[in-house]
Each structure stands twice: as structure tokens, then as C-alpha cells.
Specification:
The complex is a heterodimer of chains A (655) and B (115). Chain A has 655 residues and is of the alpha/beta class. Chain A has 3 domains: 74-242, Rossmann fold; 267-440, 3-Layer(aba) Sandwich (Rossmann fold); 454-568 and 605-651, Rossmann fold (3-Layer(aba) Sandwich), CATH 3.40.50.970. Chain A has 23 helices and 19 strands. In chain A, strands 9-8-7-10-13-14 form a 6-stranded parallel beta sheet, covered by helices on one side. Chain B has one domain (3-103): Cytochrome Bc1 Complex, Chain D, domain 2 (Orthogonal Bundle), CATH 1.10.760. Chain B has helices spanning 3-20, 28-37, 40-44, 64-73, 88-100. In chain B, helix 1 crosses helix 4 and helix 2 packs across helix 5 (88-100). The longest helix of chain B has 18 residues, at 3-20. Chain B starts with a helix and ends in a 15-residue tail after the last helix. The chains are: A alpha/beta (655), B mainly alpha (115).
């Protein structure tokens, strides 16, 4: 929290210059005096002191009278800049370090463009922005409080980084050590506050003047929205927010934002890739985050149909219609002679397999998924950005043609080059591939339905039953599945007729737990404005990281159908424990639960329906009998259609 | 594991259960308890239906003569269960439990799976 002179006699720049001079003067204190002071016996102090009364008061009491500002607040100009960027919402948790811009946004800015979305945790705020982007293609702005708020936000920012999602993080920070209040506000200040997120943001800055801020905000937005997309962070000094605008002889201006055209792959490399694909007997297209927009899907269909190539969607985005006969399971890479990977997060694991069976639990056994001699082509915008610390770049995979560029931007040229490269003599063989693919698709769908029928009447309820009862309840609506259903055997991706870009929006990116509910609320916020129905299958463990997001959904009247996949444990982890115990020849310790100690969420069982009800949701559960699902879903869907969020606590099979 | 060793173990396992008679008769109810206790459900579901983490085990489970050596020597995605952890008798019970699980309805008879 900053305390500033309401009518300072010196400007901030002059003050900083004075502070440097004062520091230099203090450095000239005679050494002898320092030595004598150090020689005095000092009372022993505990390693952690309780906060002083002054510190506590600074954080918990009403703020002291700040005096009255003379002129226009600097943060009003900050709002003017933000308003040029067309940002609709601002999910944030309120905090003192950005009180200046917060006040300007809701009073001067009228709480519109952006509108404040009240969050109970910065992880929720960032997760909401993440899910919102996946629907709209537009970034949101989130305010993060000093050191601690940004620390809360870090995992969610890392998820966004891994998932190539643009976010504008605006932090508060009181840099002026001589004038900021001591105690808590100083704990919440840092010399280089964005250092904690620098490894997983595309760019950050801490502007020292309002004009600097204007340039940096527009620059940050531009960088975030240039593929590969990613989060950016701007830290706002408390003084800069709260002090009045001073001219310094220059007129403030707001730079115009002009989107950067996404980078397209090199023409020669694209032609070479097209040549390989056109000559292939069995080409396979693998996509992860290739479709940045709905048009990306259309382009991928054109490419796949030109080649009659099978398409493996790794589901980072909705890249390819699940109902298309060329949509295929990952196993088709085994017979490929050419594989083109587009915006893959892990090319190595696409063409290689590993088994977690190393000696003493260390390492893996690896093997190729492809036949020898298969040609590999990569198009990825991630070639254009490199960071060292976090290992999200995955294992290195050598390829035959490597194209640095945005896949969606490169696709039109690639499609044309492929069409030009297909010899007339090869067209009949390509047409034959279509017939084989149609047959294979029909067989795979039948096998999937057979698998879904297994345990259909089981209690706890099979995940396939939960998913298909849900589909039965919403199939006539314009629906969206707002999180990755990998924890429920991907049934929605395998059984629902997903054809539109927003039918499925992928997952967290970094697999940081807690994303599911946050991302779903963000997607539902966007879908609310577009008149769509949002459904999310959320893990019980995932929900409990930051369940305060339920309150945010109710507070802002965000309709969302959430089914809690309540398998009463952190299921991935309990399998790891079982596996480790087996390799060590031990019976895993279950304690009083049915899951290994430390991995169960039972005894007591969490009453998710009561948790949700307490925060303003319509809710029901626990539902253990599959016959109770359909009537409960009818009620829940009606509640969501009336504008409420609704939750069903469903006791499920593990996966 | 060499194939000959695998077959020997399989044969021994099968023979053990045949010669021991009713004293070691497989018990589906006990098998259900063991299936839960030893964590089979974690990857394969409570009814052996399988899913994203493991293949289906039921109905029509692997015959006991193959199941015992598989559990002892698997070194792939499925972790091994050795004798000190899971006895041959437990495996027989588990196999009996899996064999007792009835076949599901044909998916063609389930309207929700035919939309």
C-alpha cells in the first residue's frame, strides 16, 4: 500500500534523484562508528518475529487519510490506455498494491471494458482468463497483488504459458522504499517483482512513467497476441498509479495497437513438405494447437481431404471434427511413411513410446511408435521462442523438415503446394485411402461404443454413463465442453459429435492441478455472452484447489453445468503409489481408506453439493445410482438455462 | 523373461490349482475383496471394465493359467505383482471374481450409445 504526499513539492523523478544522493551520503558514515555499533551486544531475536502493531494496522485497519489528489490521477490515464485494447473483463482478487488503478477502473472507467470479475484467489482469476480466451480468442487482464498475489497466480500463469494462451497480468508494487508503509506493504513489494514469472511469460516490464506505461501496455498486448501466444506481465508502481499526472513538458499519448501478422513458414520448406506429403503412400497429420481459430479447423479439413490423410488430434485445441472419417486414434502413426506434426507440444512422444518401468523406479524404457524410415515434418511457432529453465519444450525430436512458423498461417500455402505436388497418377491411390479410412472410422466407433457399454449399470457410476447421460440432456443445445476430459477416459471426445471449434477447448497446458473449474468458469463467462451452454466434467481433487471460483460464478451469474467426477481420490497419484509399491514388492499401505495413504479424498467424503450450495449454486448429490442421473441432469440443465450455475456430485468409477 | 520359463511357470500355476482341489477353490467373493485391496480397480475399474488407464479385464478375463505368470513377470505398463504381495490363491480368487462379472448389454440396445 502506498502512502503518497497528495501535493508533492518534488516530482517522482526528482525525488528518486534525491534518494540516490541521500544513499550516497549515508554510505560515507565513518567506519569506526559502524564498528562500534556492531560491537555492542545485541539481544537475541527469534527467527520469525510476529508482525508489529503498526504492520498489522497497515494491513487490517482502514486506510489513513491520504489527503486529496491535485489534478488527474495517473491511474485514470492507465484506464484510458486499457480501454483502447478492447478487453472485456478483468478477473482479479482485490488488493492494496493496485488500489489506485482499481479505483480508476471502477469509478473513472465505469467498471466497463473491462468489468471487474471478483475472484477469491489469483489462481482462479488467471484460470478464468485462460478459459475465456479459449472461447473468444481474446485476452483478459488480471490484476495481481504485489509479491503474494503474483505468487498465488504463478501456477495458473505457467499453465497459460504451456497452453500458449495470451493473458495481460498487471501487478501492483510499491517501489519507493523510503515512502511506502513499513510492515506488510513492504513484504508485498519487490525490487524485480516479475522475476518470479519471467521464465514463463513472453515479456514483462515495470514502467517508471505514464508514457512508459502506455507504450508498455500496448507492447505487452501486441506481444501476447503474436503467435506463439503467451502471457505477459506489467508491474505498476503504486506511486505511478496514485500520483497526479505531471506533464514534464510532454503530452501523454496512447500508441495505436495494430495486430502483428502471424509468422508464415518459409516458402521453400513448405514446398518440400508438400512434396513429401504428396508422394507419401500413407501420410498422417498430427495436430495439437494447430487451429488457433475456427478457420484453422477448416484449413486442416482441406489439407486432410486433399491427401486423404488420417488426422490425429492431440486435443490442445479443437483442431479437427471428431465426426470426420479421417479423424483417427494415435496408433495410426505406426503405419505412416510421412508424418506432419503441427504445433505439437511433444513431438518426441508422438513418434516414440515410453514405459515407466525403469530400474528402481528411475527412467523409462523407450521405443519407436513409427516404422523405420518414416519422414517427419514439423511446423511450429514455438521454434520462434526459447526459454531455458522450465522444461515445457519436452524431449528433442529430430525431424526431416523443420518449419518455424505458425501452423494456421502456413496452412493456406501448404494446401496449395500439396495440391500442386500431387501427380495425376497418384490421385486414384489417394481416393482409395478415403474408402479405407471410412471403414476404419466406422469400426473404431463401434469398438468405442462397445467399451462404453461395459459397466453401464455400475455403481459407482461409470464415466461413460455419466458422460452420455449428460449428452442426452444437452444434445439439443449449442453446447461446449469446457475442460479436458482425460480423467474420464476422454469419453466426450470419443462419443460426442464434436464438430465446432468451441465444442471442446482443450486443457490446462501445464497439467497444473486446479485449472479445471477455473478454466470452465472463464469459458462459461464467454459462452454466456454468446448464448451457448457450457458443461464441465471436473475432478474432485481438481475442484478442491481453489473452490472459491464457485462463488465467482454465482456472483457474476455465469451459467455452467459442472459434474464432479468424484472418484474420491487423486487418481493419477494413487496409481503411481500402487505402481511404486509393486516394483518394490510391497503391499501398498491403504490406511483406513481404499486408496494408498495420502491419495484418497474420503473419510470424510466431501459434500460438493453443499459446498456449491453454500456459494449460491443449484446443486445435487451425491449421485451413486446411474438411474438417478437423468432426472438430476434435467433439473440441473433447467437451472443452468435459467442463468444459474449448477453442480452435480456424481460418485464415479476411477476413470 | 524367456518364453520357456514363462510357460513353465504357467504350467506350474495351473497344476497347483488343479491338484490342490477344493481347499484352494477360487472364491469370487473373496476375489472381489482382493481386487479392491490390491488396487486392481485403480486402472481397470471396479467391474474390470477398463478405461483410460488400463484395458478391460471382464467379462471373459484372461485364463488363470496365463494370468499368474503375466502378473509375476509383466514389466510394461502393468506393474508386476509378486508372490509376497499377491498370492496365487488371491489371483485365483480375483480371476474368479472377474469371471463372475456378467456380460454387458449390447451397446446397440442402449439408446444413449446410438445417437
Amino acid at each position: 500500500m502506498a502512502r503518497k504526499d497528495s501535493n508533492p513539492k518534488v516530482g517522482r523523478r526528482q525525488f528518486l534523484a534525491g534518494a540516490i544522493a541521500a544513499g550516497a551520503a549515508s554510505a560515507m558514515t565513518p567506519p569506526a562508528a559502524n564498528a562500534a555499533e556492531a560491537a555492542k551486544p545485541q539481544p537475541r531475536t527469534p527467527s520469525a518475529l510476529p508482525p508489529s502493531a503498526k504492520s498489522m494496522a497497515a494491513e487490517t485497519h482502514p486506510p489513513q487519510d491520504m489527503g486529496r489528489i491535485g489534478g488527474t490521477a495517473g491511474s485514470d490515464f492507465m484506464v484510458d490506455v486499457i480501454k483502447t485494447l478492447d478487453i472485456k473483463y478483468m478477473p482479479s482478487n482485490c488488493a492494496s498494491s493496485f488500489r489506485g488503478i482499481h479505483e480508476s477502473l471502477i469509478d473513472y472507467g465505469g467498471n466497463k471494458m473491462p468489468e471487474f470479475i471478483s475472484c477469491m484467489h489469483e489462481e482462479s482469476a488467471i484460470g478464468i482468463a485462460h478459459g475465456y480466451y479459449k472461447i473468444t480468442g481474446k485476452p483478459l487482464l488480471s490484476l495481481c497483488h504485489g509479491t503474494v498475489g503474483l505468487q498465488h497466480a504463478t501456477m495458473a500463469i505457467y499453465n497459460a504459458w504451456c497452453d500458449r494462451v495470451p493473458l495481460i497480468i498487471v501487478g501492483g508494487n510499491d517501489m519507493d522504499a523510503a515512502h511506502r508503509p513499513p510492515g506488510v506493504p513492504t513484504y508485498h513489494a519487490a525490487q524485480d517483482i516479475n522475476a518470479i514469472v519471467r521464465d514463463y511469460t513472453k515479456w514483462d516490464d515495470m514502467p517508471v512513467s505514464l508514457q512508459h506505461y502506455a507504450q508498455s501496455m500496448v507492447r505487452a498486448y501486441k506481444i501476447a497476441m503474436t503467435p506463439p501466444y503467451g502471457p505477459v506481465a506489467i508491474s505498476l508502481d503504486a506511486g505511478l498509479q496514485q500520483e497526479p499526472i505531471r506533464s514534464h513538458g510532454e503530452k501523454l499519448y496512447i500508441p495505436k495497437y495494430v495486430p502483428t501478422a502471424p509468422p508464415q513458414g518459409d516458402t521453400g520448406a513448405v514446398k518440400e513438405a508438400a512434396r513429401l506429403l504428396a508422394q507419401a503412400q500413407n501420410p498422417v497429420i498430427v495436430v495439437d494447437r494447430a487451429a488457433r481459430t475456427p478457420n484453422g479447423m477448416n484449413l486442416l479439413v482441406q489439407l486432410a481431404e486433399a491427401l486423404q490423410a488420417r488426422v490425429v488430434d492431440q486435443n490442445g485445441r479443437m483442431n479437427f471434427p471428431k465426426t470426420h472419417y479421417l479423424s483417427s486414434a494415435p496408433g495410426v502413426v505406426a503405419n505412416a511413411d510421412v508424418i506432419i506434426g503441427m504445433e505439437l507440444s511433444d513431438f518426441w512422444n508422438t513418434v516414440n513410446s515410453f514405459t515407466d518401468n525403469g530400474v528402481n523406479g528411475i527412467g523409462t524404457t523407450n521405443g519407436p511408435r513409427t516404422k523405420q524410415g518414416t519422414k517427419l515434418i514439423s511446423i511450429s511457432s514455438m521454434e520462434l521462442i526459447s526459454k531455458s529453465n522450465y522444461q515445457d519444450f519436452q524431449r528433442f525430436q529430430e525431424v526431416d523438415v523443420s518449419i518455424a512458423g505458425d501452423a494456421e498461417a502456413t496452412l493456406p500455402a501448404l494446401i496449395e503446394a500439396v495440391k500442386a505436388a500431387i501427380p495425376n497418377a497418384g490421385k486414384a491411390a489417394i481416393a482409395k485411402r478415403a474408402e479405407a479410412a471410412k471403414q476404419s472410422y466406422a469400426q473404431a466407433l463401434a469398438r468405442t461404443r462397445e467399451a462404453a457399454a461395459l459397466g453401464w449399470d455400475a455403481s459407482p457410476i461409470s464415466t461413460a454413463r455419466m458422460v452420455m447421460e449428460t449428452y442426452g440432456a444437452i444434445k439439443d443445445l449449442d453446447w461446449c465442453v469446457a475442460n479436458a476430459p482425460n480423467g474420464i477416459s476422454n469419453w466426450p471426445l470419443r462419443l460426442w459429435p464434436m464438430e465446432k471449434y468451441y465444442h471442446h477447448i482443450g486443457g490446462s497446458g501445464g497439467a497444473g492441478q486446479g485449472y479445471g473449474p477455473q478454466g470452465a468458469v472463464g469459458a462459461a463467462l464467454a459462452n454466456r455472452d454468446l448464448g451457448r451452454f457450457t458443461v464441465a466434467f471436473v475432478g474432485d481433487g481438481d475442484l478442491m484447489y481453489a473452490p472459491g471460483v464457485l462463488w465467482t460464478a454465482a456472483k457474476h451469474k455465469i451459467p455452467l453445468l459442472m459434474l464432479v467426477h468424484n472418484n474420491r481420490g487423486w487418481h493419477q497419484e494413487l496409481m503411481h503409489l500402487q505402481r511404486t509399491a509393486n516394483f518394490r514388492n510391497r503391499v501398498v499401505n491403504l490406511g483406513q481408506d481404499t486408496a494408498p495413504v495420502g491419495c484418497g479424498i474420503m473419510n470424510p467424503d466431501v459434500q460438493y453439493e453443499k459446498l456449491a450450495e453454500s456459494m449460491g449454486w443449484w446443486a445435487k448429490g451425491p449421485i451413486k445410482d446411474p438411474r438417478q442421473l437423468a432426472p438430476a441432469l434435467r433439473e440441473a440443465v433447467a437451472a443452468v438455462k435459467s442463468g444459474q450455475p449448477a453442480l452435480l456430485n456424481v460418485w464415479t468409477q476411477p476413470r | 523373461m524367456r518364453v520357456s520359463n514363462l510357460l513353465t511357470t504357467a504350467a506350474l500355476a495351473a497344476g497347483f490349482f488343479v491338484t490342490q482341489g477344493s481347499a484352494f477353490a477360487a472364491d469370487a467373493q473373496k476375489g472381489k475383496t482382493a481386487y479392491a485391496k490390491y488396487g486392481c480397480w485403480q486402472c481397470h475399474g471396479y467391474l474390470g471394465q477398463g478405461g483410460g488407464a488400463g484395458p478391460k479385464l471382464a467379462p471373459e478375463p484372461m485364463p488363470l493359467v496365463a494370468l499368474v505368470p503375466f502378473l509375476r513377470h509383466t514389466n510394461g505398463a502393468m506393474p508386476p505383482y509378486m508372490e509376497p504381495v499377491l498370492s496365487d490363491a488371491d489371483i485365483a480368487d480375483i480371476q474368479a471374481y472377474l469371471a463372475s462379472i456378467p456380460k454387458p448389454a449390447d451397446y446397440k440396445s442402449i439408446p444413449l450409445l446410438n445417437q
